[in-house]
Design brief:
7-stranded parallel β-sheet; Rossmann fold; binds adenosine-5'-triphosphate; stress response; single chain; binds magnesium ion; 19 helices; DEAD-box ATP-dependent RNA helicase CshA
């Protein structure tokens, strides 16, 4: 066990960390904080939800000089939502010290960002395109930056942001510290990354598997056409607190969200074609619990830390093992438990094995639940409700009506009617879903995916730059 005391942090940092409720350092924090404090370049790889943000955030905040008004550090993240989340976490770590952290991302009014940039933030957290935009407008100057962090580095390089990142780094003094963090770091991507770094220390938290052990992992072999009914049955049986359903494409996400609503669930989709305001409002509603199901594409959910996500459903099997790791990692965070269920069509079994081989973890086979099973579990839930109502509520007001009813009907029929009314019967409203092509070959796919992801993250109105 490593406590934060052992890092020799300043009292302000110690206070902030304890205010955040952190008692001991997670393994990646224990391994990388001392290195970062010594200004070493670090590639940090550790499982999802194990505190990589604070692993780079704590030393970063510690090194901010409050007597210097210049931008001293920059964190680059692949999506706007993640940039916002990371800036919030850094803000908390720096709250006692009063470090100024500013998120800048595409889709937000640039004039507003320019005004905010004039207020001398110490740390910028941004997406690659918008950061570069500000550098080119000279509204952001990086000549005093001593630390650069690339969060989800593999994703950004994968998405074709290499040149953007290189362009950003060319504006940062070479005498700097560069930190890279992700739960996945495929070898070829790591080699590209090392181009930006000086003699980096590769820190991999030793784990038998790429995924955390507290996520139960299942797969269901199923025909494409039967996926949706099976999903709704699972939702009825498992009644997740908050669930994320992953679809392969934006169209898929839209159709799934609509279909779920048709069947009476509160679901909304999130992907790169939605406006920034819409994406943020969907996420906020999900965090507050006013929607129960978030339907998302891979990119939209990378790195997101939402407490209360108990279930992840891969409606479509992920394109590659890395996506799988990040998708299911939206649950089982910070030591909590979670469940992940992956749908796989018979033709995609090869892809399933490829994922299992890479993550070094077998998924357990689950039988698709039947309609009767779904009905039974809803009925059990109804009975539960009835029993708690008896336990917790004063029923005297209703007892007269009950006695009158009992004079005319037998008690079993009456109770049965109550249970029926409380049971959410599986809804079979017909829905329209366009079929997705199965995932088969591995190599060709990565290029397609790369292109698609780039268009997704850039979103609307982003400048097109020629790559490769
Ligand atoms: N030392 C700690 N003790 C308790 N909770 C912590 C600690 N460090 C971080 N956390 C909490 O754990 C959660 C997950 O952290 P974080 O988002 O940094 O994970 P991550 O490793 O970056 O995951 P991902 O790979 O999905 O991006 C956050 O809510 C964070 O506040
Ligand atoms: Mg993270």
């Amino acid at each position: 066990m490593v406590t934060f005391k052992e890092f020799g942090l300043s009292p302000e940092l110690m206070k902030a960390v304890s205010k955040m409720g952190f008692e001991e350092a997670t393994p990646i924090q224990a391994a990388t904080i001392p290195l970062s404090l010594q200004n070493r370049d670090v590639i940090g790889q550790a499982q999802t939800g194990t505190g990589k943000t604070a692993a780079f955030g704590i030393p970063l905040i510690e090194k901010i000089d409050m007597n210097n008004d210049a931008v001293q550090a920059i964190v680059v993240a692949p999506t706007r939502e993640l940039a916002i989340q990371v800036s919030e976490e850094l803000y908390k770590i720096g709250s006692t010290k009063r470090v100024r952290v500013l998120p800048i991302y595409g889709g937000q009014d640039i004039e507003r960002q320019i005004r905010a940039l004039k207020k001398h933030p110490h740390i910028i957290v941004g997406t690659p395109g918008r950061v570069l935009d500000h550098i080119q407008r000279r509204t952001l100057r990086l000549q005093n930056v001593h630390t650069v962090v690339l969060d989800e580095a593999d994703e950004m390089l994968n998405m074709g942001f290499v040149e953007d990142i290189e362009a950003i780094l060319s504006h940062v003094p070479t005498e700097r510290q560069t930190l890279l963090f992700s739960a996945t770091m495929p070898e070829p991507i790591r080699r590209i990354a090392e181009r930006f770094m000086q003699n980096p220390e590769l820190v991999r938290v030793k784990a038998k598997e790429m995924t955390v052990p507290n996520i139960e992992q299942y797969y269901i072999e199923i025909q494409e056409k039967k996926k949706f009914d099976t999903l709704t049955r699972l939702l009825d049986i498992q009644s997740p607190e908050l669930a994320i359903v992953f679809g392969r494409t934006k169209r898929r996400v839209d159709e799934l969200a609509e279909a779920l609503n048709l069947r009476g669930y509160t679901a909304e989709g999130i992907h790169g074609d939605l406006s920034q305001a819409k994406r943020l409002s969907v996420l906020r509603k999900f965090k507050e619990g006013s929607i129960d199901i978030l339907v998302a594409t891979d990119v939209a959910a990378r790195g997101l830390d939402i407490s209360g996500v108990t279930h992840v459903y891969n409606f479509d099997i992920p394109q590659d093992p890395e996506s799988y790791v990040h998708r299911i990692g939206r649950t089982g965070r910070a030591g909590k438990t979670g469940m992940a269920i992956t749908f796989v069509t018979p033709r995609e079994i090869g892809q399933l094995h490829h994922i299992e081989k890479t993550t070094k973890r077998k998924m357990e086979r689950m039988k698709p639940p039947t309609l009767d099973e779904a009905l039974e579990s809803q009925q059990r839930a109804a009975i539960e409700k009835l029993l708690t109502t008896i336990e917790h509520n004063n029923l005297s007001f209703y007892k007269r009506a009950a006695e009158e009813l009992l004079e005319e009907h037998d008690s079993v029929s009456l109770v049965a009617a109550c249970i029926k009314m409380l049971t959410k019967e599986p809804d079979m409203t017909p829905v329209q879903l366009t079929e997705e092509m199965p995932i088969m070959k591995k190599e060709k796919k990565r290029q397609v995916q790369t292109r698609q992801r780039r268009s997704e993250t850039r979103g609307r109105g982003a400048k097109t730059r020629t790559k490769r």
